[in-house]
Amino acid sequence: MGAVIKVENLGKKYVISHQRRESRGTLRDAMTRTARGAWQRVRHPLSPNRELLDLEEMWALRDVSFEVQQGERLGIIGRNGAGKSTLLKILSRITQPTTGRVHLRGRVSSLLEVGTGFHPELTGRENIFLNGAILGMARQEIKKKFDEIVAFAETEKFLDTAVKHYSSGMYVRLAFAVAAHLEPEILIVDEVLAVGDVAFQKKCLGKMESVAREGRTVLFVSHNMDAIDKMTSHCAWLDAGQIKSIGASKSVVKGYLEEGFQCNSDLSRFRISSLPGTASLTELAVEDVSRNRFSTFRQGEPFSILLRIECQTVSPVDAAVVVENAREQALFTTHLTDMSEPIAGNGGHLLSIQLDKPALRRGKYLVSVALFSPDKHSFYDVVYHFPLFEIAGTLDPRFIDDTRWGDLYLPIQWKRLT
Amino acid sequence: MHETVIEPGKNLKDFWRELWAYRELFLFLAWRDILVRYKQTVIGVAWSVLRPLLSLIILTIVFGRVARLPSDNVPYSILVCAAILPWQFFSNTITTSSESLLSNQNMITKIYFPRIIIPSTTMVVSLVDFLSALGILACLMLWHGLWPTWRIVVLPALLLLAAAASLGVGYWISALNVKYRDFRHVVPFAVQFGLYASPVGFSSNVIPEKWRFWYSLNPMVGVIDGFRWALLGGQANLYLPGFLLAIGLAVVIFASGVRFFTRTERVFADII
Fold this sequence. Notes:
The complex is a heterodimer.
Chain A (H helix, E strand, L loop, with lengths): L2 E17 L7 H17 L9 E17 L3 E6 L5 H8 L7 E7 L2 E4 L12 H11 L4 H15 L14 H13 L5 E5 L7 H16 L3 E5 L3 H7 L2 E6 L2 E7 H12 L10 E4 L4 E10 L7 E4 L3 E9 L6 E8 L4 E6 H4 L7 E9 L7 E10 L6 E16 L24
Parallel strand pairs in A: 3-7, 3-8, 5-6, 6-7, 12-18
Antiparallel strand pairs in A: 1-2, 1-4, 8-9, 10-18, 11-13, 13-16, 14-15, 14-17, 17-18
Chain B lengths: L2 E4 L8 H7 L1 H15 L8 H21 L9 H28 L1 H6 L6 H27 L11 H25 L2 H16 L14 H4 L3 H13 L8 H25 L3 H4 L1
């Protein structure tokens, strides 16, 4: 079939103006500047005033090229400000590119937000028609799908109520229901799954999947790596307006997550006390089973925490490691002396704590480390709440949409007794 | 298969074709504006009768009773009402269309459609108000036993003239308003000033003959005169050079408005 979306050297430049900040200088300087500014105002009344403003060029996108094949589902990931939204806005023709061109084959619908054009004063029924028209559906088409939309949104009872009286969940459900019944050849979606309650999110994911199964091309931007993993076959990673990598979703997502949790090697910012001339923690890191220094793991994936300790004393040193969730609540503690002798002797020591079947759920984790004398009378070094690793995604398909409570996932047996 | 090419600076060659494709959206947005207009008001649609009625009463008292201006042989209230019809249509369209892009900001930054639809739909709402004012005029004329002549068939064409002039101004100001919010402060003032600068509360016959042509540079002068000519029968005569000037001006304003709008709409989403 060939490429349905063909993007060539796409670039978008924004010119942003800052208020010029100079030292005030003398009164005379200020007066001449004001006068020059005023003179410029008179000559070019509607152009930005260069005497008072600094204009800065900013490329939100630069030299972006890629192709999407018919029926392909391409994910677009990247940090905030990487240019994802700009790319989507260009593809949906909301804004024009500065350079390059895009070739689209087929009817395009873009969903940069659910409920665009919803009017709070109008009823659910009226808004379905209005929103459908805004998204490009013909009146006949909306009429035909009306019942389906209402059923999908589960808002039958409130059809004739103004949507301003809707709960936010109902509002979002109705808005998504309209959008979900679009039948474009190319669908561009931005983060719309980040709305609604869990059950509805699942429904949306299901709907999106069936859209893609029907052979339509989907472009999907999300911060939810699980959704990207599940929904898309290919993935483009945007970074600072350029494509950093593009390819199979699995590997691109892995690379993205890896970079995301930048190893914060500056331990000193988290050190709350230290006793000079004793022992100190010089390195805190995590690695996977093949000894790669990753810091992002999937749920259930084994990894180890590494501690490098410099001893300037010969007296024995015990180490305690506390693993905490992102809210700084301790989950468990492990001591070196639980398993072995305290370390002793001048020089460097490298310790590893192996977590073969980590029971941690998705999220960011902090680690606190204390080095102390085995009698716990003196603390040599204490590092508090150091953000060390992240669990993102899962190896177990049962937990992809997991939003249960709690930080731990324990291997529990359920038995039917009767 | 539907093909789209997105390129920098590409002016939409098929502007009109696309506008036609989005005609339903135009109707839906107009329908929305009408529905929303009087939501959460106690007297609802009655406002669209009350507003022209109140300005009719005030203008009739001020110009007819207090200033005692000549009334061209028709009851003064009818003279004023025939002018309120196009003036109100004109001023409502300008006021709402110049704000329209800003109040639909959300749609502009999130979805693609020909932007010109937004300021254009405001005209439909003004049309509803126009019809209620027309009802008032009909009642007044019945009351005074005045019957319209054949000239009334020209009324739709005159309305079109008023629409062209007001939309043209609306396109200019709404597009400028996106970048320079100054215009939102200028418009209410200009409209208020326009009420006195146009012959709404008085007949344009009170303008000295030598100034008549220059006075007609305000396109609303020709439009209002045209309305009086069409509605009031034999008593009103039309100053032809002024009227032709109004037609020319309306066409120029409309065409330049469309042109300016379509040239600037590309950057709306970036700067709004």
